[in-house]
Amino acid sequence: MTKINGEERNGVTVLRKSIEYIPRPSLRTWLIGRPLSTADAPHQTIGKLVGLAVFASDALSSTAYATQEILAILAVAGTAAFGYAFPISVAIALLLIIVAISYEQTIHAYPDGGGAYIVARDNLGELPAQIATSALLTDYVLTVAVSISSGVDQLASAFPTLLPYRVYMAVGLVFFTMIVNLRGVRESGLAFAIPSYFFVAMMFLTVGLGLLKYVTGNLEMLADPPPIEVLGPLVAVTPFLILHAFSSGTAALTGIEAISNGITAFKEPRSRNAGITLIWMAGILTVLFLGITFLVHPIGAVPSREETVISQLARAVVEGRGPLCLAAMAGTTVILVMAANTSFAGFPRLSALAAKDGYLPRQLTYRGSRLVYSRGIAALAVFASILVIGFQANVSRLIPLYAIGVFMSFTLSQLGMARRWWKSGHLAPGEEIKERGSVLAYDRGWQVKMIINGVGAIATAIVMVVFAVTKFKDGAYIVLIVIPILVIIFLGIHRHYMSLAHSLSLENYGATPRLARHRVIIPISGVHRGSLAALQYAHTLSDDITAVHVSTDPDEAERVSRKWETWGDGIRLVILDSPFRLFLEPLLQYIEEISDNSQPNEVITIVVPQFVPKHWYHNLLHTQTAILLRLALLFKPGIIVTDVPYQVD
Amino acid sequence: MTKINGEERNGVTVLRKSIEYIPRPSLRTWLIGRPLSTADAPHQTIGKLVGLAVFASDALSSTAYATQEILAILAVAGTAAFGYAFPISVAIALLLIIVAISYEQTIHAYPDGGGAYIVARDNLGELPAQIATSALLTDYVLTVAVSISSGVDQLASAFPTLLPYRVYMAVGLVFFTMIVNLRGVRESGLAFAIPSYFFVAMMFLTVGLGLLKYVTGNLEMLADPPPIEVLGPLVAVTPFLILHAFSSGTAALTGIEAISNGITAFKEPRSRNAGITLIWMAGILTVLFLGITFLVHPIGAVPSREETVISQLARAVVEGRGPLCLAAMAGTTVILVMAANTSFAGFPRLSALAAKDGYLPRQLTYRGSRLVYSRGIAALAVFASILVIGFQANVSRLIPLYAIGVFMSFTLSQLGMARRWWKSGHLAPGEEIKERGSVLAYDRGWQVKMIINGVGAIATAIVMVVFAVTKFKDGAYIVLIVIPILVIIFLGIHRHYMSLAHSLSLENYGATPRLARHRVIIPISGVHRGSLAALQYAHTLSDDITAVHVSTDPDEAERVSRKWETWGDGIRLVILDSPFRLFLEPLLQYIEEISDNSQPNEVITIVVPQFVPKHWYHNLLHTQTAILLRLALLFKPGIIVTDVPYQVD
């Protein structure tokens, strides 16, 4: 059913039609659900509880390994150095709080979402913004690859028969997560909320029981700790070692930026909801991280490849591998898959944002049938799968690539926020400046806020550098090569869109002159119904028509000109002798001669008869002249190529 | 420089232009030489001496292994059975003479060339002709694969370091032979004549010296024969064993049909020259084959994987591995590569012939820049390379596929000739019937000739059946599957061309009515120089123009209609609301609605503005609407899609 609304505006009739669309059931609708109308969009936002499950799993899942990473570095200085773990975790918790406050401030300053990219763009300029984009996009891909691979590892440790199929399982899980996300954010929120909260509950139970036992003096040392793993010869505790352990532990911070990129996914008032969710997340993360790190010392947990620290803790608290221990492990496995899901929310949003600004292909701003940026989701799945296959789902080979991007974006975001406070401090009270993504106003506490962000920027920059230096050879160099390449590509894309907009701009564009003359050329290989259909169409275009036959065989040329005398409506026929049996080249040369001699206000249309056989593979039996001709004449102004399809059968 | 000849015929102006073509030097001209004009064609024929080198190497190279194949079968009945080898070879020589006479008769009956395909087509009908085509084409591909692989084997036996690179070398040689053939037949004749005659000379020297020693009583038994190879447990000599040995030995006949397919390559009088060349070839082949087989018994040669029979013979004649022995081996290697070259002459000719009759893609009739059927040459190289790679250049795995096709085509050809004599016998003396490829007249000796051909047909049919049965499991079944599939494809291609010709035929076709109405639709995504260029072009087509904007964003639609008021020349604008954010579907639905309501004598042109960016890869940054639209509307009569390219920069 078609509804029509007519309107006459400034002498131009503007008709508005709404064409009802009845989606056909298909594999696609079965997989991702029936198409949603744009009008359905506002309902597809999420509340704080679902938002926490959707955006926080990446950050929360890092509690599963952050403490262990600290211990693994400290082990080089002997088990006595494990005493430094808790003070280091307190420092990390402080950093976490600074970053969280910074992002909470960002969420309120940028209610339309953005995170590092928008903050860098609005406060630092194009290059830092594109560095942030590249760093974040790279990291999203790595999050999916690392988290899914690690999740599959946990599964394979539990069921060793699955071990040979790890890569297949990982790729399968990537595409499963992709489909869940193509269905839309609310559905994926519901699907993922239960396991997310299960993990959080298990962790709180473990840590809470442990602290209770510690306070009541019932927490005992592990009777059978796994064999400790030391990465090198024993060394003394140095400031560098402490910094190294600190930087390894900051893996706990990865994923904290997810909410600030996804503010628009939240229910209104979205800034407030997103901000509260961020604070919840930071709170849960801090408590769990500090709790776990505090407890490992009294129970004598050690870093080991045979048993994770979480497992040792669960075992110590409930005394043995009971159901609680298994449940904690299951929760850990699932939260890692959830972490991948966080990227499936972040990557498409960020790429759509950058695409809207013209730094990525515009197609990424297209919202698919379920109102999600389906092309970004699909792109993430493809890149992550390439990474998973390339690194054979091996987490330890992927880890050194991970986290540099996160800290690079943290640094840029906080640097941008610091710059913003500095700018706001130099406004008059009450003065407001409208920026693209936000409104800038004078803020009384600007010095304190600037210092918080500045300290955060310096701290995250140091972490990034330490990370890059210590893990350079293990793979960090790959990221340090990829990010600049991506930046160059993004800037190139932007240059193209800018130059295109400039070429197409109607500024200083005079009135379009009418074309004075229209010449038509019909290349014919023979005289048949197809070429007569083309001739019939040519008559509607112009009275200046020339048929051209490229001749490689004099007998054939004679036959064509005889038939043309009967059927050609008296239209002039030119026979081009092609002594080298070429078809396209003489025709092009002829067309170019005519075009070179034409007046400026003239257009030439090449009308090409084209058979359309019933089956596509029959095209293999015909030379595709029209396609070749179009490609050859694409760059020639004033020449238009038109196929006149002739349906055979 | 353009020369023009005008002419007025029946009120139609027919212009004849000849456009001079200056070929640019390129990798292509460097590889295959400067393009040749069609006028150069007659000079590119060859004489008898070169013709022998070009067409006979396939047949002659079989002397390198035919005798050994006979001995290998007889060895199952003990070395005493080797005495049967010479009588068997006499029988094969008789068969060879029958086949040669048959083909000599064919060459004179069909002076425009043809061989099995044309003889079967003109005398037996479509199906036998297509079976012959499939069999021959399959066999040409196999000849290349087998000969090149065998040649590489000889090389690798001499230089074992080359062994791991056999497949690469074989593919390299296939493409080398391809390039030589793309240069044109005369050049390839010259390039190949010297080694061909070297092989013949070496063989005559070996056999001649051997016979001389035998007559003078100086030929001695080999002092150190290589270890004999027996393929199974000892059995008695049975008629089946003799037949089996006979059929293995008939490998000597492969390639004998090459000349009859390539008559047109010869200098005039071509039938005579081709016939004489065939007789020379058959003579050389018979003498060498009989001579070699006669000599193996007195010297006590045995079939062996460690040393070929030819090598044993050379060693016995010159007493030791001297220069003659090495020269004979080198000649053998080279003749095998020459044998592949024979197929490069035969395959393109046959496929062009079948393509001209509409059983293969018409493109195969196209003669390339060097006046050879370059597409057939390239196709042969590709198929042979696939076979070489698929079978890892392993001759013993390829051999069972080989020869069935040859004998199938021999049988069909001789059956066709027998039928032809029978027909000629039923004409009145002096009466003549014109057939497509020949003139049929009464022949006094028709009974004898028919009996010769009939006996040949029966003999080659038996050989084919014995071959197929004894080697079925080893790979012959592949050919017996491939040939019927090819026949079905060829008949399908023919059906397509016939139905196309029928659809395009102007028989019973009335005068073309003028189209009464021309509607133009311009889909616009925005108002810019590109869409205005399309509008400017649309004005030359019709006054009935509608611009259509598919709207997924109301703000954007508002902007477009405002701009259109200024720039749209008062042309009606339709805004199609697309609630599901689809672009193509609402547009197609709109076009179809208009098309369904249109009158029969009406045409609709969709004028699509299309950017042409400077670099092709920039197209990745744009949705290719025009291409999708054209594909979607290809099957809809009365709708034409025209892109108006707008060159950016």
Can you give a write-up of this model?
2 copies of one chain form a homodimer. The first copy, chain A, is of the alpha/beta class. Chain A has 2 domains: 47-497, Amino acid/polyamine transporter I (Up-down Bundle); 517-647, HUPs (Rossmann fold, 3-Layer(aba) Sandwich), CATH 3.40.50. Chain A is 59% helix and 10% strand. Chain A has 22 helices and 9 strands. Chain A has helices spanning 27-32, 48-61, 66-74, 85-109, 116-123, 126-158, 166-183, 185-215, 239-249, 258-261, 270-299, 309-318, 323-356, 374-390, 395-398, 404-425, 446-470, 472-504, 529-541, 554-567, 584-596, 625-633, and strands at residues 2-9, 12-19, 432-434, 439-441, 517-523, 544-551, 572-577, 602-612, 639-647. In chain A, strands 7-6-5-8-9 form a 5-stranded parallel sheet, with helices on both faces. In chain A, strands 1-2 form a two-stranded antiparallel sheet. In chain A, strands 3-4 form a two-stranded antiparallel sheet. In chain A, strand 8, helix 22 (625-633) and strand 9 form a beta-alpha-beta unit. The longest helix of chain A is centred in the middle third of the chain and has 34 residues, at 323-356. The model of chain A has no long low-confidence stretch (mean pLDDT 85).
